[in-house]
Every structure is written in C-alpha cells, then in structure tokens.
Give the backbone structure.
Amino acid sequence: MAMVFKSMAASSVRQSTTIFVNPLNHRVSNLRFCYKGEQKWKNGFKVSATVELGVEGLKRTTSNVVVPLEGGTLGLDMVSEGDLMVKGFKGLRKTKLVCTVGPACSSLEDLEKLALGGMNVARLNMCHGTREWHRDVIRKIKKLNEEKGFSVSVMIDTEGSQIHVVDHGAPSSVKVEEDSIWLFTADKYEGSRPLTFQANYPGFSEGIEVGDELVIDGGMACFVVTEKIGKDLHCKCTDAGLFLPGAKFSFWRDGKLVRRNYNLPTDRTLSTKDWADINFGIAEGVDFFALSFVNHADSVKDLKKYLSGKSTKSIKVVAKIESLESLHNLEEIVKASDGIMVARGDLGVEIPLEQIPTVQEDIINICRQQNKPVIVASQLLQSMVEYPTPTRAEVADVSEAVRQYADALMLSAESAIGSFGQKALAVLDMTSSRMESWSREENRQSLLDHHKLGASLPDCITEQICNCAVEMANKLGVDAIFVYTKHGYMASLLSRNRPDPPIFAFTDDESTGMALNLQWGVVPLLVDLSDDAESNISKSVQLMKSKGLINKGDVVLVVSDVAPTRSTPMALQSIQVKTII
C-alpha cells in the first residue's frame, strides 16, 4: 500500500506536489512530512517540536548555490576522514578504542602509530611514572592533534587505594616459575631485588596465615604462604605465570576471599596524591578522569563538583567498577558519572569468575539505559603482552563485548608494556569492525527498550526526537546521521540507540568533541556553528561534498536543535532527511 504526502519540491521553481512513496523502497526522495507541537513551559519559553521527513537537493544553480562560509574548514580528524574516503559510511568502526600509554609506546613516533591505528582515547595510569613523564606524553598527543590532524582524547586514571598492589621494580613483566620461593615485603627500596616483591601498603599482611593463597592479578600467578616473619611473607609459587609491574593481589582461604578492615578513610576522600594528580590533569587540559575504587556515588559527585569550580573546560568523570560494593550501588554510581569502566581484572577478584560475563552485560545495559558511555577493560588481549597473535578465546571475548554494544574497548598492559601494542590495537579494530558488520548483515541492530531520562518537557522532547530519528534512519536505510549539538547531549541520545548508520556530530565546542570520542558510533567534527540551523546544515554538507566525503545520491538524516535565547525564545528541534544532488 502506498502512502500519500504533500511535498514541497526543492528546485528553482517551488511548487506543491503530491507524490507516492513505496514503503518498501528505502531510498526516499522529495518527501516532506511535518509534525509541529507547541507548548509554553514555566520558564516562559515556547517549546516547539518539529519532525520533518523531507528531502531537499542541494543543486548548483545560478540563483541558489550553497557554498561554505569563506575560510570554512571541516574539523574532521584525519583517521576518520581517511576511513570514510576508503571504506565509505558503512566501513566506519563504531566501537571506540582506548590505549594505555606506557614505556612501550610513549615516543612521538609510537603515539602517532597508535593514533593512525585507530586510538580514540589515550589513557595515562597514574600508578606508574612521574608527573613529568605524563606531562611529556600529554603534550606529545596534543602536538599530534594540532600538527597532524588527529583527535585523540586524554584520560587520566587516578591511583586510588593501592593497599592491594605489589611491584617487582622491573620496567616490564617478570616470569614466575613454579615452586620458586619469593619474599613479599613492605620494606622500601629502590630498583629491584632477586625473588622479591614490594608491597605498597605496610599492613598488607595483617590477618594473613600460613597456608593462605596469594593470587596475582586475578590468576596471572598464584602462591601459597609458607612462612610469616613479622610483616614479611615467604611464598611458594603454585601456578607459574606473568607478574606485571604494579600488579594487584588478593588473599584466599578455603576458597573464599580474605576480607580485612584496614580502617582506611571512606572512598569519598581521595588521597593527597590523587588530588595532586587531578590538579595536574586540570592544568594540562585532559578530557577525562577515570576514578578508581568507586564504591558510592558521593565520590563521583565530589570530584565533579570540584572540577566545575576549578576547570574552565568540561572534564568528564568515568567511574571504575571494580568491587562487589560498587555493584551493589551500581545504578546510583552510573547516574552520577559521565561514563563507566568495567575493570574486569579487579572485579574478577571480588566475584566468582563465571559471573563476569553476565555482570559485564548487565553493566553495559544499565549504562545504555542511563545514556552513559561504558568501557570494557582488563585482559582483552592479555597474551599479546608477549605474543604477536591473540588466542581465539580472546578474540571471542572482544567480539562478545562488541556484540553487547559496549561503547569502547581498552588495552592495558598490551599497549603500555607489551611488545606488540600496535598489533593488539589492530586486532581490536579488525574484530570490532567485523562484528559490527555481521550485526548489520544479520539485522541484529535493535532499538533500546527505552528508559525515560528526561524530567522536564524540553528534555522529554529531545529524547523522543532522537529515539524517532534512529528508528527512521534504520528503516529508511540512510547513509549517515548528522547532528548539530552544543554540548553533545543529542549526539549521545542518538548513540544510545545504536543506529545502523554512523553519527556525525557537528559542534563548535572542543571539549564536547573530545568527550564524544568515547561515544559509540559518533564521529565528532569541530566547526563554526551559528544560530541559523539551516545555514549550519548547508555549510557542513557543502564542506563534506567539497572533500568528496559525501556524494550525489547519498541520503543523510539531519537532527538539529536551536536553543532558546532572548532574541529567539523558541526552542526548535527537527529531523530532516536530505538527498545529496
């Protein structure tokens, strides 16, 4: 059955026509369907919602030529631009990639290779290295962004409580052989000692008994306590393995985790070093803080409040879920945060290993419901710390995280100290792209069972506009979604629904663009925006045409909003479908 709509054709002669549209034909042209609703809100502004399914060709005529503003530039990063030129819209990877920067990849050359390989966010772990070292890395990344056209965001991961950390003093991993005897001590010393591990916390051995099991990094190596002398422990290796710098440890007795009360401050209080690292990050203009050992939402709220008063730019706070207590308070932590990191290594110490897959999926789903980006981290390609190819089980693990629609995947030791960091990144890129392609081929893209986010009428309208836009984009088979956004909220709402086409988010705020590097399927573009929505659309489309990034016949769905101001007290949000002519 055909549908009939009234349409205004986009041509040099504007006329009203009636056309027939076959619902089975995904290529829609010359169709405009409008819905307008208007309601006064208590702040005095009028709120108007407009949904337009219409297509206006951008024709080159002497009377109506759409051209970019003089000096206009397209703020698209070089990697996305290159991928778009070679692979087209459907070839763009939607899952974002986070790389931990360490000694193995801190040179300008290595950082550039990671950026070329698809790194969206560079993570700096404040557990390791000096602030001078981290400052040097941050400035190298910014140099690459400015001079080479990359758009890599910077995340600082706070140290947090380090009472469960031991180190061997060597710059890279150490192999632990079965039956070897090792000393675990809290004594401070420089460098490394043979068969000795140094614990960060003086009371690490309190309450520990001979016969207890000591597990490194959730099972990378295992020991049994054979002797306790004062605060020192002599331990025999029962399961040989790899000991990474700054490894986490836990004690087990009779198959249960040994829980001890260290009488430490609550997690609302960051350590003195954490605050110094946060102030360092503010001064260096980082884009994200990852907050370690978050057990309650209050610690996130405290940091966000501090940042709002200290930083001139918007810095996002990502909460790391790595304890049983954080799972008990998960929803309130997600609501308070700007994003979540599933720290599976530490989490796997607190809960049974077999629960990790389902807990991971639950966290991802809750984050989508609450419109917060989520990173899956820890041991994704752990074998590639030493070997050039991953295990098949690791590839399956990565694929499962992509299938669950995680926003981002993270490399830790693989890139920081591994010998094959660039290959590990290539594996994430290849596996993510293939899994996303399979989801499209199998038509497995499914809309979220919507959880209402907005409390005010304007927020509810924005939410519904974005929900409808994604449903329309999928059903019409458009090539891309364009969104014009000041603070990234509309782009995140579109991403939340995991649309089939990629989302190009045009913004004039650099902080917004860098934050969107963590959102699934969003390609941020830094451009000059005006209050004239149609001008923004025409300008950006023409800029992309001039670079050959969109071509004749491409169909894009455009979502835009104009915020109410004193001069324009009407909040207007619209959906348009445009065919490039």
Q: What stands out?
A: Confidence is low (pLDDT under 50) at residues 1-71. The radius of gyration is 26 Å. DSSP finds 16 helices and 28 strands in the chain.
